[in-house]
Specification:
The complex is a heterodimer of chains A (326) and B (343).
Chain A: E1 3-16, E2 19-32, E3 36-40, H1 47-55, E4 63-72, E5 75-76, H2 82-91, E6 93-96, H3 100-103, H4 110-122, H5 126-139, H6 145-148, H7 158-170, E7 176-180, H8 188-205, E8 208-213, H9 216-222, E9 225-230, E10 233-239, H10 240-245, H11 250-257, H12 297-301, E11 307-310, E12 313-315, H13 320-325
Parallel strand pairs in A: 3-8, 3-9, 6-7, 7-8
Antiparallel strand pairs in A: 1-2, 1-4, 4-5, 9-10, 10-12, 11-12
Helix pairs in contact in A: 4-5, 7-8
Chain B: E1 4-19, E2 25-41, E3 45-49, H1 56-63, E4 71-76, E5 79-80, H2 86-93, E6 96-99, H3 113-123, H4 133-143, H5 160-172, E7 178-182, H6 190-207, E8 210-214, H7 218-224, E9 227-232, E10 235-241, H8 242-247, H9 252-260, H10 302-306, H11 315-320, E11 327-328
Parallel strand pairs in B: 3-8, 3-9, 6-7, 7-8
Antiparallel strand pairs in B: 1-2, 1-4, 4-5, 9-10, 10-11
Helix pairs in contact in B: 3-4, 3-5, 4-5, 5-6
Classes of the chains: A alpha/beta (326), B alpha/beta (343).
The structure holds adenosine-5'-triphosphate (2 copies), iron/sulfur cluster and magnesium ion (2 copies).
């Protein structure tokens, strides 16, 4: 399979008044065409910042990429010219945000916003662009697309707005889509509609998909492989079936163990103790060590590298073997 | 069976829809809560689930008497509290407390943690003599697993999970019998949610509390609840114990809702039979006639357009008995296998 996107040892920091926040501290992941990578991790772990760096929309300053490389279809993105990157966005890579209402322009009709893509990138006339907009709305199953193409974002329900965002991302048939919590703000029944649509379009167009989420259920449903982030690092990567069966990092194991299970009804849930660290003061050694049930002295002094656990599997834990075994 | 601490009968809340600025004219109503009935028994947890806008928070506010009901009755230990006011209302309020969803905005940023948790004592001075309050607040901090020395800190110095503990401590201050939890863990990280759920379970046993637990995470509701009510467009459409609702749902909406929950098990991917509902939830200002779910229901018949199905044990299911025989507001209530939520 051809590697579509390859992120290597990416580091991003925010230089703020309170100090330097090390938001991303060595992220490695890759996605192939037609593949879905789920990026999982708690709030503030650097999932969105990594995605913004890939898309070239990092808030800079205060954000700075201090190390690492990003390859997209073989090209080294970080050495590309600003204009060349702008050309890629929308046409070859696109992003879907969590909050469609704030991502869409409130004073432009959705038809105008969808059509704009074709006017700018494909040089279509307004009229042809509008026809394409209707097609797209049909495709993401907005009922009565023709009548509603002139409506404004607030006139649609949350689920419909999210589908319009998907339509916008799909418009130019990009090779890579990054969906940042695309269904978090939606109800479960609507979430199911939207995920189904996204998966279907991805299959059809053979796109690479990076799905950022904190929902272990959604991951199990759609992902081919997972990257788990903690305090700005990837702590574990694995094919989806393997990680649920036997996690190789104590953080992943803790997350899976804290899902309520039927046979535990009425009992205490397993809970990872403590809190995620402040990015201004990441603990030395393994960032997870203050919360980790497996931690030994070495975890407080030495930062664990990403150990290869099996082909296509890696874990940043000194005791990955012990974790894997039980 | 245990005693019912709370009985809710025919509870209704309509918000007027008006047009015009100077001369307001009512042009309709948002039927946020549209006839809700349930009992809450001593020491139990009643879960309430349903999609955004179905009226869960409005029910909670009505029970707290933060909103005036349009119709219906609320009984606390047999006493009708629906129209109480003044002193009598204050006395009842001591017994019913609430924990809110958003730990970031529900605490006053300019008050210390001690003042926040002790605030109920200002309103109910009889609950703790002045000299005793500081110690009581420190006890409460200890009970919810926070360092009693934090009493002079401000909310922004705490994480989301810690703030939710502060909210719970405040809820416990007056020794209430009922705590209404409106999405108490939704805003928290997965790794912190389990900590707060465990705390709430422990406190329930320790203080013999009755909980109404509102949430949209069906697997958490299942874990913590004895009974569960499923709401749709202002009404409870199915009500039963945890096993009846999750293993033997008979209302099509409950079935669709459960089938839509992603299961954290990749092996189950191929086995799942998902019901994808067509269309969006209708507006509560324009509720369909007959069965309010009929516009999205794959089983709907003519009868569903004309007749409102009552929330009762359907006769056909009552005859068969077993776990499928529980309250379900559907003319064609029947079991169907659907993947259970959460493992
Ligand atoms: N523009 C910015 N200025 C300063 N700090 C920022 C900025 N954007 C992000 N950060 C910081 O970088 C860290 C990582 O943020 P990021 O948004 O990537 O987290 P996340 O994993 O996506 O979390 P969530 O699940 O909450 O979306 C956070 O601590 C955040 O405060
Ligand atoms: N003060 C009000 N005035 C007018 N309409 C209101 C008011 N409060 C609530 N509503 C409407 O009543 C309906 C029910 O709202 P409610 O907040 O109870 O829903 P919910 O089930 O708690 O939803 P969520 O899961 O999003 O919290 C919604 O349509 C809402 O817009
Ligand atoms: S390296 Fe140590 S502290 Fe970190 S996860 Fe592994 S055992 Fe725990
Ligand atoms: Mg994010
Ligand atoms: Mg609510």
């Amino acid at each position: 399979m051809d590697t579509l996107l390859d992120v290597r040892d990416l580091h991003v920091e925010f230089r703020t008044r309170d100090g330097v926040a090390k938001a991303v501290n060595g992220v490695n992941y890759s996605v192939n065409a037609g593949e879905t990578l789920a990026v999982l991790g708690e709030s503030g772990s650097g999932k969105s910042v990594t995605a913004q760096a890939v898309m070239g929309i990092l808030d800079s300053p205060p954000g700075h990429i201090t190390r690492g490389r990003i390859f997209f279809q073989g090209a080294d993105l970080l050495s590309l010219h600003r204009e060349a990157r702008r050309q890629l966005r929308g046409a070859r890579m696109a992003m879907i945000f969590q909050d469609a209402l704030s991502a869409l322009n409130p004073v432009l009709s959705v038809g105008a916003q969808l059509g704009e893509m074709f006017v700018v990138h494909r040089g279509l006339s307004r009229r042809d662009a509008r026809a394409r907009a209707v097609e797209l709305m049909d495709r993401v199953r907005i009922p009565a697309a023709k009548e509603r193409v002139g409506d404004y974002p607030h006139q649609f329900s949350g689920g419909m707005r999210q589908r319009i965002m998907i339509a916008m991302a799909m418009a130019l048939e990009p090779d890579l889509i990054i969906a940042d919590e695309p269904t978090t703000a939606l109800d479960v029944t609507v979430q199911a509609q939207v995920m189904e649509l996204l998966a279907e379009l991805q299959r059809e167009m053979h796109m690479g998909l990076i799905l950022i989420t904190h929902d272990l259920g959604v991951v199990a449903d759609v992902a081919d492989k997972i990257a788990v982030m903690y305090a700005g690092r990837i702590v574990e990567t694995a094919p989806v079936h393997e990680i649920y069966k036997a996690p190789a990092h104590p953080y992943t194991k803790g997350l899976l163990d804290s899902i309520p299970r039927l046979d535990q009804k009425g009992q205490e849930l397993y809970a990872i103790k403590g809190l995620p660290p402040s990015l201004l003061r990441i603990p030395p050694g393994c960032a997870f060590n203050p919360r980790c049930p497996m931690a030994q002295e070495v975890c407080r002094t030495d930062e664990p590298p990403l150990y290869e656990v099996a082909p296509h599997r890696a874990s940043a834990c000194h005791f990955w073997k012990e974790t894997l075994d039980g | 069976m245990a005693e019912a601490v709370l009985q809710v009968r025919g509870l209704v809340k309509h918000f007027p829809l008006t047009r015009g600025i100077v001369f307001k004219k009512q042009i309709g109503a948002v039927r946020a809560v549209d006839g809700v009935d349930f009992d809450l028994f001593q020491g139990e947890t009643l879960g309430i689930v349903g999609e955004s806008g179905c009226g869960k928070s409005t029910v909670a506010k009505l029970l707290m008497r933060l909103e005036e009901p349009t119709a219906g009755r609320i009984l606390f230990k047999g006493e009708d509290i629906t129209r109480l006011s003044g002193k009598a209302l204050k006395a009842v309020r001591r017994n019913i407390q609430m924990v809110f969803q958003d730990p970031y905005t529900s605490l006053n940023p300019r008050m210390t943690v001690g003042d926040i948790i002790g605030e109920p004592f200002e309103i109910h001075p009889e609950a703790a003599p002045k000299g005793d309050r500081r110690r009581k607040v420190q006890d409460l901090l200890d009970v919810v697993g926070l360092n009693p020395e934090y009493i002079n800190r401000y909310p922004h110095q705490f994480s989301g999970g810690q703030r939710q503990r502060i909210g719970i401590a405040r809820g416990l201050a007056l020794n209430p019998e009922i705590i209404i939890c409106d999405e108490p863990v939704s805003a928290l990280d997965v790794s912190v949610q389990a900590q707060v759920i465990n705390l709430m379970t422990r406190l329930q046993k320790e203080f013999d509390l009755s909980y109404i637990f509102i949430a949209h995470d069906l697997s958490i509701v299942r874990h913590i609840s004895d009974r569960v009510g499923v709401m749709y467009l202002g009404r409870i459409v199915e009500l039963g114990n945890e096993e009846q609702i999750y293993e033997h749902p008979t209302h099509p909406y409950t079935q669709a809702l459960l089938s839509a929950v992603p299961v954290p098990d990749p092996e189950a991917r191929e086995r799942r039979e998902r019901i994808i509902l067509a269309g969006d939830v209708p507006s509560p200002a324009n509720i369909p006639s007959g069965c309010r779910f009929r516009t999205r229901c794959w089983k709907a018949q003519d009868k569903c357009v004309t007749e409102v199905p009552p929330l009762a044990v359907p006769p056909a299911l009552r005859e068969v008995g077993g776990p499928a025989a529980h309250e379900s507001a559907c003319h064609f209530a029947a079991e169907r296998d659907c993947a259970p939520a959460g493992g």
